[in-house]
Amino acid sequence: ATAHLTSQPGMISISPSSSSSLPTSSLPLVTVGNGSHLSATAMGNSKISTSSRPLYLQNVLLCPGILKNLVSVRQFTSDNLCSVEFDPFGFLIKDLQTRTPILR
């Protein structure tokens, strides 16, 4: 995924200064695996609380036709200055500077 996507409006906060004030024609079309296009209807932000620090999902597209929430790992790691490691059991998010685990 090149952008964070959700079909659930309750997953994101849309502030008055965000793209909610943009016409939906300004929001991107999302191309899915079968090549079809889905319209994004809004953009907002979300926060994941952890015991060490919050992690942010910025510019999440609200796309009612998407079946599963998607996270852009590149955008997430860049926005949160962290790394993500995948293994057969799941994933581990670490602070980029200290390499301290944030979330498993």
In short:
The protein has one helix at residues 73-80, and strands at 5-6, 29-31, 37-39, 42-48, 55-62, 82-87, 90-95, 101-103.
Q: Which descriptors apply to this entry?
A:
mainly beta; 3-stranded mixed β-sheet; Cathepsin D, subunit A, domain 1
Walk me through the structure.
Pfam families: Pol_BBD. There is one protein chain. With 104 residues, the chain is mainly beta. It has a single domain (5-103), classed as Beta Barrel (Cathepsin D, subunit A, domain 1). Helices cover 8% and strands 37% of the residues. It contains 1 helix and 8 strands. It has one helix spanning 73-80, and strands at 5-6, 29-31, 37-39, 42-48, 55-62, 82-87, 90-95, 101-103. Strands 1-5-4 form a 3-stranded mixed β-sheet, covered by helices on one side. A hairpin with a 6-residue loop joins strand 4 and strand 5. The longest helix is centred in the C-terminal third of the chain and has 8 residues, at 73-80. The radius of gyration is 15 Å and the shape is globular.
Give the tally of structural domains: 1
Which word captures the global form? globular
Measured by DSSP, the beta-strand proportion falls in 35-45%
Number of alpha- plus pi-helical segments:
1
Poorly predicted runs are: none
Strand pairing plus helix content: what structural class?
mainly beta
Cα Rg? 15 Å
**Strands of the biggest beta sheet: in what spatial order?**
1-5-4
User: Any guess at the CATH architecture?
Assistant: Beta Barrel
N-to-C SSE string, H for helix and E for strand: EEEEEHEEE
